[in-house]
Amino acid sequence: MKSSLLVLFLSLFLVSCGLQSIPQANNQVEADWAEVMNQYKRRTDLIPNLVNTVKGYAAHEQETLEGVVEARAKATSVNVDAKNLTPETMQKFQDAQGGLSSALGRLMVVVEKYPELKANENFKGLQAQLEGTENRIAIARRRYIDSVRTFNNLVTVFPTSLTNSLIHHFEKKPQFTVSEAEQKTPEVKF
């Protein structure tokens, strides 16, 4: 009798592991993804002001300015819903954001050629906002990475993985990766 109660208690304990923690971790992943998207949106909202400020000083750098505008358009056209995160959609998103980061890097190289632009208060304010946004993006990505790690552990590590396979059926969430292009240090030439 006591052994059957112990087996029943143990079975209930193992089955109940993850009943709340897996959905809560999934909700945290979705919230952290929303913050990542919020910070990328902030960056794309700043870009038109930055481009217009630079235009006034460097009108003949049209190719670079058009590249930034085009990269911004591409980055904003790739929307990834937290509920449908797959490695493929994550890669498309990262590629688009990486292209925008690269274009912004080229724009900053152009800015180095114009000392009077760097001294302009509007530009300095926009540049500070952009730098702050890049830091916010890094923090938001770090939080997302942490919440995905926690979630993926819950859905793949025993005993909560048992609950996931029997009840929830969640798949692992994809992590951010760094492309080869993003690993390269931008080259500054004058």
Structural domain tally:
1
Number of helices: 8
The count of β-strands is: 0
Estimated share of beta-strand residues: under 5%
Q: What is the ordering of alpha helices and beta strands?
A: HHHHHHHH
For the biggest sheet, the summary is:
none
**Radius of gyration computed on alpha carbons:** 23 Å
Q: Give the averaged pLDDT, no decimals.
A: 82
**What is the overall silhouette?**
elongated
| Helical content band | over 70%
Structural class computed from helices and strand pairing: mainly alpha
N→C terminal distance: 84 Å
Uncertain stretches: none
Quick tags:
single chain, 190 residues, mainly alpha, 8 helices, 0% strand, elongated
Give a nutshell description of this structure.
The chain is mostly helical. It has helices spanning 2-16, 21-57, 62-77, 87-112, 115-118, 121-156, 160-168, 180-183. It is elongated and about 85 Å long.
Task: Describe the fold and architecture.
The protein contains 8 helices and no strands. It is mainly alpha-helical and 190 residues long. It has one domain. The longest helix is centred in the N-terminal third of the chain and has 37 residues, at 21-57. The model has no long low-confidence stretch (mean pLDDT 82).
